[in-house]
Design brief:
Distance between the termini of chain B: 29 Å
Shape of chain B: globular
Largest sheet of chain B: 8 strands, antiparallel
Order of helices and strands of chain B: EEHHHEHHEEHEEEHEEEEEEEHHEEHE
Number of helices of chain A: 3
Strand content of chain B: 15-25%
Distance between the termini of chain A: 134 Å
Number of strands of chain A: 4
Shape of chain A: rod-shaped
Number of strands of chain B: 18
Structural class of chain B: alpha+beta
Oligomer: heterodimer
Strand content of chain A: 15-25%
Largest sheet of chain A: 3 strands, antiparallel
Strand order of the largest sheet of chain B: 1-2-6-7-10-15-16-17
Chain lengths: 146, 359
């Protein structure tokens, strides 16, 4: 009857188990990192798309009903701007003309210096149309008691 | 969005010394009842209103000797005791109590105790029967102002209403009754009547809006029921004024306001005027001088929660003068319009948002 050396068996098996466990632990941690990176990338992509969609939606609202295109027309393209103050010509100093056309075909002409567009006017198109109030009929007149 | 047109029926009657018009919004009713049913209901309603007004006239008129108010005044004059309780109708009790509640709010300027002063100045009979020529008035008695605050009220266990007046005090509720009656009628029509119709009651210029309780003032299409009320340009005081023709050419109305609840009233020295001892008098008495008030306000129009309240505030504005009236209106967030004796129009901040048209 051979007596199995308990110690040898125990001692002999230990390093193998430890190596396996370590490998498994490393694999697990890599998997965790991978999953986290994957999740982050998915979230990032989705977030990006959402932001893009949101931007598109809001810009579409502004131009939804009245698309305004700006067609900048410089009066004389051949004129080279003279930066010498001595040769300053008041005619030259005039701001260039900017022609604005709407999709409706209306032409709006303005000076370049005035080309700031009133954003509130653009926003007005998004405002809900006011609910028509009930008709008011004048039926009486207040005055000193008669 | 097309809205159904407003269908308004108007009942016109004359009572309590004024022309009364009751405008009924029939928009919701027309679809549910036949024309015959509506006609019958309106005849009945007009009859009920006439009966109610006749009853109130018997209580409050100061030009009817047998009215409850004048009986009370006589009894109090004859009373030797200083502590006599008089049993009165619930209506007289209610209006007098309301009138007394405004004394402190108006620094004693609007009070129901000026009957003697009015009579002394010649306004002792219905204005329609007063001649426009000189009236022989007596000099004001100049009695010390009797404080209406001393009037006592009580309701007995059996439900009877009683009040005790300071000895010799005479009451005049004309400055309150029309406003009170306008609001009461409007409530009766829009709350108590089975059809609960939105309405506007015009008691000779003191106006109340009746709003059905169940729909909080919304019409069938869920819109607030707005009534247009014009504010009349007051009569000119001096017919020889150079600016008169220019003033009159401006039209009969100053502005139009939209009312969806409450009441509006105008008080002015441009009407109910008479000549006494070659001097023009009017019915708005200053309690301290016991004479017709001297004010730079020709007329004042105020919007308030009830017509009686609007009537009191309008009178108060006239008594305190244009400048103080406007700042007081603004302080109390009330809509008011003042025309001064130079025919200049000034409005409070809140009135500006209420007006829908100006001349």
């Amino acid at each position: 009857m051979t007596k199995t050396p308990r110690l040898a068996k125990t001692v002999g098996n230990k390093p193998i188990k430890r190596t396996t466990k370590q490998t498994a632990k490393k694999a697990e941690s890599y998997l965790g990192v991978k999953t986290a990176i994957l999740m982050l990338s998915i979230i990032g992509t989705m977030g990006g798309w959402l932001m893009l969609l949101n931007q598109e939606a809001s810009s579409a609202q502004v131009t939804d009903q009245s698309t305004v295109s700006f067609e900048q027309v410089v009066i004389d393209n051949n004129v080279v701007t003279d930066t010498n103050l001595a040769n300053w010509d008041e005619e030259m100093a005039k701001p260039m003309t900017v022609s604005m056309t709407t999709t409706a075909g209306e032409s709006l002409t303005s000076n370049a210096s005035n080309q700031n567009i009133d954003i509130s006017q653009l926003r007005q198109v998004n405002e809900a149309a006011p609910v028509p109030s009930a008709p008011v009929r004048v039926v009486a007149r207040t005055q000193s008691s008669r | 969005m097309n809205q159904p047109p407003l269908l308004i029926e108007t009942l016109a009657l004359k009572a309590m010394g004024c022309h009364i018009q009751v405008h009924l919004d029939m928009t919701a009713i027309k679809s549910s009842y036949s024309d015959i049913q509506i006609e019958q209901q309106l005849i009945q309603l007009k009859h009920d209103i006439e009966e109610t007004l006749s009853n109130w006239e018997q209580i409050f008129s100061r030009f009817k000797d047998r009215s409850e108010l004048m009986c009370l005044n006589r009894l109090n004059q004859c009373s030797e005791s200083n502590s006599q309780w008089f049993t009165v109708s619930a209506e007289l009790f209610e209006v007098l109590k309301l009138a007394v509640s405004f004394i402190d709010k108006t620094q004693g300027l609007v009070t129901p105790t000026l009957l003697q002063a009015l009579c002394d100045l010649g306004y002792s009979q219905s204005f329609e029967t007063l001649t426009t020529v000189s009236i022989r008035g007596q000099s004001s008695s100049g009695e010390p102002l009797q404080h209406a605050r001393d009037i006592e009220f009580r309701v007995l266990a059996d439900g009877s209403h009683q009040l005790k007046l300071p000895r010799g005090m005479s009451l005049d509720l004309n400055g309150y009754v029309k406003g009170w009656a306008a609001t009461k009628l409007a409530e009766q029509i829009s709350w108590q009547h089975p059809w609960q119709m939105p309405c506007l009651v015009d008691m000779g210029g003191d106006i109340a809006v009746g709003v059905p309780k169940d729909n909080s003032g919304k019409s069938p299409n869920n819109q607030p029921n707005n009534w247009g009320v014009a504010i009349a340009r007051p009569n000119a005081l001096n017919t020889e004024d150079e600016k008169l023709s220019e003033y009159q050419s401006l039209g009969i109305d100053l502005a139009v306001v939209a009312l969806d609840k409450g009441g509006i009233a105008t008080s002015g020295q441009d009407y109910r005027r008479w000549k006494c001892h070659d001097q023009w008098r009017h019915h708005l008495i200053h309690p301290q001088t016991q004479q017709s008030a001297i004010s730079d306000v020709l007329s004042a129009t105020v919007i308030a929660d009830s017509t009686l309240e609007a009537e009191v505030w309008a009178k108060y504005c006239l008594l305190v003068g244009a400048s103080e009236a406007i700042s007081w209106l603004n302080q109390n967030n009330l809509a008011g319009l003042i025309v001064d004796t130079s025919y200049q129009v000034v409005t409070s901040h809140k009135m500006t948002s209420t007006m829908i048209a100006t001349s």
